Amino acid sequence: xxxxAPSPYLRELALLRRVKDRIDREYAQPLDVESLARGxxxxxxxxxxxxxxxxxESPYSYLMTRRIERAMxxxxxGDLSVTDVCFAVGCSSLGTFSTRFSELVGMPPxxxxxxxxxxxxxxxxxxxxxxxxxxxxREAPAPEPQLA
Length: 148
Description:
There is one protein chain. The chain is mainly alpha-helical. It has helices at residues 8-26, 33-39, 44-55, 59-77, 82-88, 94-105, 109-116, 125-131. The longest helix is centred in the N-terminal third of the chain and has 19 residues, at 8-26.
């Protein structure tokens, strides 16, 4: 007889996916690793380790990436100030927002706003989202491919 119960590994992946989905939905809400961990009944440390193992970045880093991604879209629109965008995406500190934005995008949000206005005009939103997606650790250049 074959067991149809999911393995513990698959159950854990499903829980981690729920956390990721919650971050995607509630990025603008006050979220922290402790509350995310409580939502799936594990410790914050365990969630951080397993989330990073599964998705390549910590829950906090993933949350900040989502917030910066949304901030980029709002800044491209051009009708909100950097401060308004900071608070609209759930950040409570303009300094932290600007630092994280600069780390991920490679320029401060005010510079991005000035340069990006209208750059995706006419593109479908699904294309502009993919083209403008922030890349974690953009400051670290990718290694050149080694050809044999």
